[in-house]
Write a structure and sequence with these properties.
The complex is a heterotrimer of chains A (398), B (430) and C (233).
Chain A lengths: L1 H19 L1 H36 L6 E5 L7 H11 L4 E14 L2 E8 L1 H7 L4 E4 L5 E3 H7 L6 E7 L14 H8 L4 E7 L2 E4 L7 E5 H7 L9 E6 L3 H14 L3 E5 L1 H39 L2 H12 L4 H39 L9 H18 L18
Helix pairs in contact in A: 1-11, 2-9, 2-11, 2-12, 9-12, 11-12
Chain B lengths: L1 H11 L1 H35 L7 E5 L4 H6 L8 E2 H4 L11 E15 L6 E9 L3 E4 L5 E4 L9 E4 L11 E5 H6 L7 E5 L5 E11 L8 E4 H8 L4 E2 L1 E6 L6 H8 L6 H8 L4 H11 L3 E5 L1 H43 L1 H9 L4 H39 L8 H27 L2 H5 L3
Parallel strand pairs in B: 4-11, 8-10
Antiparallel strand pairs in B: 1-13, 1-14, 2-12, 3-4, 3-9, 3-13, 5-6, 7-10, 8-11, 9-10
Chain C lengths: L1 E12 L2 E12 L3 E5 L6 H8 L7 E6 L2 E2 L5 H11 E4 L11 H12 L4 H10 L15 H13 L5 E5 L7 H16 L3 E5 L3 H5 L3 E6 L2 E7 L1 H13 L1
Parallel strand pairs in C: 3-8, 3-9, 6-7, 7-8
Antiparallel strand pairs in C: 1-2, 1-4, 4-5, 9-10
The chains are: A alpha+beta (398), B alpha+beta (430), C alpha/beta (233).
Amino acid sequence: MGNNSRKKMYLRMITSSLIRRASRLIIAVLAIAIGATILSGLVTIYYDIPEQLGREFRSYGANLIILPSGDFGITRADIDKLKNLIGREKIVGLAPYRYQTVKINEQPYLLAGTDLHEAKQNSPFWYIEGDWQNVMIGREIAETLDLNIGDTFTVKGVKYGEQAEASKQNLSAEENKTRDFGSQNFSKKLQVKGIVTTGGAEEGFIFSDMALLNEMIADENFKADVLECSIVANAEELNELTNKISEHIPNLSPKAVRRLTQSQDIVLGKLQALVLLVTIVVLIITMISVYTTMTAMVAERRKEIALKKALGAENKFVIGELLGEGILLGFIGGAAGVFLGFEFALRVSLNVFGRGINFQWALIPITIIIFIAITVIASILPVRHVMDIHPAIVLKGE
Amino acid sequence: MFLRMILKTLARQKSKMLMIAFTVVLGVSLSTAMINVMLGVGDKVNRELKVYGANINVKHKDAAIMGELYGLGVNDKFLYEEDALKLKTIFWGFNIIDFAPILESKIILTAPGKNLRAEVPINGTWIEKHAILQTGEELNTGLRALRTWWDVKGEWISENEADLNSVMIGNSLASKYNINVGDALRLSSNNGVVKNVIVKGIYNDGGNADEAVLTNLTTAQELLNLSGKISSIEVSALTTPDNDLARKAAQNPSSLSAEEYETWYCTAYVSAICHQIQEVVRDGVARAVRQVAESEGTILNKTTLLMILITILSSIGSALAISNLITASVIERSQELGLLKALGAYNYQIILLVLAEVMLTGLAGGIVGYFLGIAFAQIIGQTVFGSYIEIAQVVILIVGIILFLVTIAGSIPAIRYLMALKPTEVLHGK
Amino acid sequence: MPILELKNVSKIYGSLRALSDINLSVNAGDWLSIMGPSGSGKTTMINIIGCMDTPSTGSVILDGVDISKENAANLTRIRRDKIGLIFQQFHLISYLTAVENVMIAQYYHSMPDEAEAMEALEKVGLRERAHHLPAQLSGGEQQRVCIARALINSPQILLGDEPTGNLDEENEGIVVDIFRRLHDEGVTIIIVTHDPEVGDVAQRKIILEHGKVIQDIDQSATFGEALKLKSKG
């Protein structure tokens, strides 16, 4: 009972101290909140950088190429299994490709049937003149055949499962013609919707939708020759993933694109180190300024401590009260700052990466505890010689 | 008298003013460091991104890409090796970090004492070429720096004479024919030239190159009887991310107005660099490797934006902290300042006094902080990128203005408090 | 039996002799004024009597115990139990209400008890103002809270440091009136003041100069008279 009333008085004192001095303490709370905002904001960003920038690095294109182990191609069932194995949220793009040799003006070209939407996800660096849709041709082809957007061209080829009859020199023109229009052959007029510029081998391809290709070659079965996957993962994760794929789907043979995975690790490592260093510098500086702000407010405390001592307060009481106030103050400022910091990190993420951010929930207690500690240190350290504060200073004026 | 009072307060309030100065030092050093890093980060990250290899490819204008696609036929159109070094003489030559002329063809691979005969691709190139330009500038360049992702078993071949009879082979080729480091191979071309070589290293590229043989350019030229000829040049250049102007120019540089052309030509857009390369490489067509060039732009823009936002946040943070501290410390001193009021000082005199004190303190702190900030920036540059960050003079101006505004802003609540203060309250110790 | 006895007390700060060889004895229930010009040693005297400082030489016997050799912690305990302090600047804690300011003394002493604190405020006529903050009270009211706080733990000595120094005539009267009632109840009162009117209402007045008692005046004869005058004034 007696202890209770002491506890109540203690709480009453420290809460009154904070509530009724609110207008002056706002400065301190503000300082703590700024510090906590920066801490939680930057640390959140730091932790999220590999994930966020990792996704940006996917603009370099597919980092995992999957080939069929046998001669049977990759089926839809394989792709579904694969997607589950990788984890759908990690997949930026997964485009199947089926290649077919076709002839335009008796010259051989390669037609790639794919999922155009996924191909776009995989290769955002392709520059498309016109539209990203059925049918696109590489720039080399466009230049060689002098094709522009809207022009049409005819592709000819052999249907799936049929044998092409070799052109024989001793065949007459008439016979050659029948050979070309035989039931084992196809011929289709296509319109150019887009021209692909990449500066790479793609400029020599014709790109169409998989369905269109299948229709032309009269094969209803989905069958991909290769899968290009763009996956959010670092080199190590990708290695684990390739092992897992070979193990679980033995008819697939995955291969990480070394050039991309190695380089990404190097660059991302540097960027993360940069943010880490910046975070540390910013944190040290913020903590020191929180400390200085708190200590600037200490003069009035000296007088109060002297008075309390004159009234007979022992050192431990005085320290206990300072401690209580510091904890409460640090808690309020820290809590406010954590949420502001999360808000800030979210804004940054939305602005820079156009995505939300994963919050490190553990940061809430950590930030609050750190700032309670700073506040307590900052309110006690300047008056650490509480014992030396002489009660007599309250006697005459200042 | 005014001056005397300022000096007196500064001297007497030493610890208070020191604290403000200290916070200003911290705040200013933070902002200085961050802004410098922010301004420099583009360049640094750009250099880091060079690990992705070449972003420009120079080929003969008539070379059909088809050959490359199907592995059919061999190009019979070549560029000249001597043109390669001219790359460093173009307007943006300084931005060209690395380049390697490559001669590619097919060759028959056999091995003494082994049942092996295969036609394989061969790439002859500068590995680590040391060259002296006409201008006297020295330069090291070659394929090695353009293949940072290679994992090499054994050793890289060098430009030394001894290595003219050494080769590196891709790991697919090695495992297919069970070739190990140190094995002897025989390379023979259609022209009947035969060379006996030693495998010095086996590389893992993770791409098509794993099927090929890599030699010094001279070796390949001798084998193929193509002295002084190359098929292509891989170029890695520091570029500015494309904008609308660059895209327009990439389509057709002659569609630009004279003024636009000037801007475009004098900016390190990949299209501008390509354009300039074509001016020096005979019969050459320089094309941006969009996978590298485009993606670089994306990463650079994101990184710079990220740094800008972090810089803004930390600058706001330190600005608030400084302004906060000034408010706190001026209010702490309100008694003393109130006394001046009681002695008959006008409000403006007191305000001037406070401002002058704080400004002087801020100035001193700001100067120290600026240099500390430069040091911070260099620490970051050295630690992360292993190079110095260039110091931008404009930072002084930016930080100076921010500091001035912050100091004023920090003094406002204190000034308002002082103006409302009644001398009697001070005297009666409220 | 004296409640407080100073025997050959000297206090030396460096080369300054703030108090020199003071002998003073105060009986329980006495009302003593200490007067003197600035620098005469009044403050040093109050520090020593108030258990906030110890003499360089000599002994101080408070309630039968020699406190002159005690350390700071013990002095704090003794001060808490035996001394009630009243300050010229009142020194109320600005963020605590009147009654809380009284309770804080109970808190450091033993147990806070709001009812008892209210009673103490009633004694100084401030029951209605108990839940106001110091800023909302007049100077006189603040000083009365300070007195209530000083009395709450029933100290042996009520020690005032210029208790009326910041008060106007009217409030000075009220405060002196309270002292008179306390004196009637048997409280020992020691007041340091430079206000002769306040000094004169005491039973006994000593005058310090250069750290020495130069006059020790028994005012018992005029005591009742002065009081009456004062309470009218």
